[in-house]
Specification:
By secondary structure, the chain is mainly alpha-helical. Helices cover 73% and strands 3% of the residues. Strands 1-4 form a two-stranded antiparallel ribbon.
Length: 327
Amino acid sequence: MEKIRNNAVVKKIGFNRLVLCGILLLMYILFAILSPTFLSYSRILSALNYAYFLGFLSLGVTFVIATGGIDFSIGPVMFCAALVSGQLLTKNEWPLIPCLVVSILVGTLFGVINGVLVAYGGLPSFITSMASMMISKGLGSVFTKTQSVSWPQASEANGWYRNLIRLKIGGIQVPTGLVILIVAAIICAIVLNKTRIGRYILCIGSNREAVRLSGVNVKKWEMLAYIICGMLAGVAAIFFVGAYSTVQPGLGDTYNNEAIAGCVMGGTSMSGGLASIGGTLIGVMIIALLQEGILAMGFQKDYQYVLTGVIVLVAVYADIRSRRRRN
């Protein structure tokens, strides 16, 4: 095993990423054997629809977890952003582009609030994000008067935003959302690994006090991690409505857990200081494939929660063992 880990190619790609890719491939083969309909192109597109918005949520929360914090509000914030912008679009007849901008701004606003309270207010991220989760759920319901919001279909006016998710070319549905998600992941990877922002965020997660004593404005960079997380939750809202159209108030909680699970599966340490954008993206694909595979086999989504929970426990245990070996 050590020889494989020390191989130059394996080191460059990352041993954990290769393992995750292997798990993803095995899952696809297993579901294809158990359910022949799983091989259909429509099933693949359906799994990708789920991966798009979950991917943006996971990319955002990776920055927060890298600081040693947590954000349990991203799912409801995504729904709140979709509800507010959707209400402005369908009921108040705002133009589409300003509504999409509003969606991102709503998510960013919650990111700023969380960042200020955690970084400058000294509140625990767990409590802060739980409060934001409840506030965002309440605001979304109040703004729409507890009514669901249905965004325009592709054939309707203002329905062109769906091309961000899926574009029909020559009768074939092309998953344009996958291209956008991969580009976003590359940008996030560059920010996290190649810029001062990412270095400080990771250092805060590794040893906050040492970073502070070195003269770095810890509060500023920690707050920025939450802002990035909130902004990407607003982007996730656009991809959610692009895939599923109707948004109901008071929901979104389960997506917090799945987004965090994608990060943990991908190698991001819950203790902070260690994060992998590439691993997060693969972890999201595993969850999306798991969800679609279970539905293809005729089981309820509850089975996905059980399996995802088991995978997260294994991933966290592996992270703890790995940290102990390094120490």
